[in-house]
Design brief:
alpha/beta, Rossmann fold, eight-stranded mixed beta sheet
């Protein structure tokens, strides 16, 4: 049997305790807990095979994204890093869905310190490699899994963040359902997506393999369908940020 205390970093040991179906031999060889394995196609959920997500799975694409997001976050700190609006309890658990290079996961880690846990989940190995190198630590760990099938047990986290991800997810409603499932009642979610307002209906009729855009009320409606309350929407140019509370 694997000696988890010597082979699995502390944050991932705590993550294993939250899993619905913990692996008997956890693969943490790359610094994150890989729950997908080499054959990402085997995860049993629809896959995004478009060019934008393909770019995020390459080392160069991840690096270019990482430098750009760092520059943008310096300009729009509050908009792109909604940690404060989540009112995470001290020692709580926070989840960053589609964490990319882990900048927001790290901010969540600072918010839950010293006893809490921040977990970042992403499907891209190269994004996770960057996240692990820059941000993993006692309070911060990363998992490879799909947003449409989160590996955590129900009602295990206090807050969920999902920034600029759902446009790449084939079934955004399934991902929101998963966020609702893993959140404790009263837990908060902050989501940001690209929007085209009312023009989104036309956009959605066009053949598009890059990324989805959301209609003005679309994301708020999906959150309400999955039991979220106090849904608050703010638009800023072609982006929309939505905050809500698990009812
Ligand atoms: C534009 S980046 C945003 C990264 C990060 N949230 C941020 O704010 O910097 C989108 C991320 O979503 C991830 N992603 C796309 N589809 C996913 C899925 N089905 N499950 C988990 N992550 C996914 C991509 O790999 C990529 O890292």
């Amino acid at each position: 049997m694997t000696d988890l205390t010597t082979t699995v970093p502390p944050a991932l040991q705590r993550a294993l305790e939250l899993l619905a179906d913990p692996p008997s031999q956890p693969d943490v060889s790359k610094g994150y807990l890989d729950l997908v394995g080499a054959d990402a196609a085997g995860a049993g959920v629809p896959k995004n095979t478009g060019p934008l997500q393909a770019m995020f799975t390459t080392r160069i694409g991840s690096m270019v994204y990482d430098y750009n997001q760092a520059a943008l976050r310096r300009l729009f700190a509050a908009w792109l890093n909604p940690t404060e609006s989540l009112t995470i309890p001290a020692g709580g658990t926070a989840l960053d869905v589609g964490c990319g290079p882990g900048t927001v996961t790290a901010a969540l880690g600072r918010a839950v310190s010293p006893d809490g846990l921040a977990l970042g989940i992403d499907i891209s190995e190269s994004m996770l490699a960057r996240a692990v190198r820059a941000h993993s630590g006692p309070q911060v760990g990363f998992l490879r899994a799909d947003a449409q099938q989160l590996p955590l047990r129900g009602a295990t986290v206090d807050a969920v963040v999902c920034i600029a991800v759902l446009q790449l997810v084939p079934d955004p409603s399934a991902a929101i359902a998963e966020m609702a499932r893993v959140l404790r009642p009263g837990g908060r979610v902050a989501v940001m997506v690209p929007t085209a307002g009312f023009a989104a209906r036309v956009w959605q009729l066009l053949p598009n393999r890059w990324a989805r855009v959301f209609g003005e009320d679309e994301l708020g409606d999906i959150l309400e369908q999955h039991g979220f309350v106090s849904v608050r929407t703010r638009s800023f140019g072609t982006f929309q940020s939505v905050r809500a509370k698990r009812g």
